[in-house]
Automatic annotation (TrEMBL):
This is Helix-turn-helix transcriptional regulator. It comes from Streptomyces atriruber. Pfam families: HTH_31, MLTR_LBD. It comes from the Bacteria. Residues 43-90 form the HTH cro/C1-type domain.
Length: 294
């Protein structure tokens, strides 16, 4: 991997994000007349978007060209409304247009999970749980998470990363029934990281590596989609216990907003709950066998 990867271009990121958001809207979506079937651009024209946002075409054009230096929060709010952005997309737009200089220093800081968090994870035995940080790095996990997702302890530290696992490890496609959705979610998280930390060389290197090695990643990265997903449901097929339908909750850690505790659970008395119990039992047995051999 390149030790000095090119950093993500903040101006290009802003430009492409606005272009892709504009392209997904049609005039009839926002109450504008649609004159003719043959439009030269997909989605709204710049003139139409500027009209909806109440700004001049020249002003919006400069912004879409990546020049957000002097844009006000009020204008960004108006453009976000015109583009019908979600809260996550609105926040991403603001970070791209008005990046904070302190984030270069923050991006250089190494990620460390507090030892007490690992102790907490070790006490959680009935549900899979792990802590994820920036760039989808997996920082800590419990035994049941290892039994469900694979033993991350066997991986090199740099490979304990959801994006690398999802796009470069074929076993992830067997585990996640809705692999395409999992992949899309992961790319959206990386996009948000890119907005928060445009000067992070490790993030740039990760994006570059995946872009070279995975056509599917390249396609998803080009969509510029961003979204928060604090909870939801994942369907999985585990080689040992079969089909599992698990809900997950994401809890952002109060002393480090870049780290989140993610926990999976099954409906009580369901087949998935029984599968987790079997998996937990198998994990304990495997651990005891491993301990006896050391």
């Amino acid at each position: 991997m390149d030790e000095n990867p090119a950093l993500l271009d903040s101006r290009a990121e802003l430009s492409e994000f606005l272009r892709t958001r504009r392209a997904r809207l049609q005039p009839q979506d926002v109450g504008l007349p649609n004159f003719g079937r043959h439009r030269r651009v997909p989605g709204l024209r710049r003139e139409e978007l500027a009209q909806l946002a109440g700004v001049s075409v020249a002003y919006y054009t400069r912004l879409e060209q990546g020049n957000g230096r002097n844009v006000s929060g009020e204008v960004l709010d108006a453009i976000a409304r015109a583009l019908r952005l979600t809260d996550a997309e609105h926040a991403h737009l603001t970070r791209l247009a008005k990046p904070k200089s302190v984030k270069k220093k923050r991006a250089a800081r190494q990620q460390h999970m507090r030892p007490a968090l690992q102790q907490l994870l070790d006490t959680i035995q009935s549900v899979p749980a792990y802590v994820v940080g920036r760039r989808t790095d997996i920082l800590g996990w419990n035994a049941l998470a290892a039994a469900l997702f694979g033993d991350w302890g066997e991986l090199a530290p740099g490979d304990r990363n959801w994006a690398r696992i999802c796009f470069l490890d074929p076993r992830s496609r067997d585990l996640f029934v809705d692999w395409e959705q999992k992949a899309s979610d992961i790319v959206s998280y990386l996009r948000m990281d890119a907005g928060c930390y445009p000067n992070d060389p490790e993030l740039s290197a990760l994006v570059g590596e995946l872009s070279v090695k995975s056509e599917e990643f390249r396609g998803l990265w080009a969509t510029h989609d961003v979204r928060e997903k604090g909870h939801g449901v994942k369907r999985m097929h585990h080689a040992l216990v079969g089909d599992l339908t698990l809900s997950f909750e994401t809890l952002r850690l109060p002393d480090d907003c870049d780290q989140s505790l993610i926990m999976y659970h099954a409906e009580p008395d369901s087949a998935s709950a029984q599968g987790l119990r079997l998996l937990a039992s198998w994990g304990r047995d495997a651990s005891s066998v491993g301990s006896s051999k050391r």
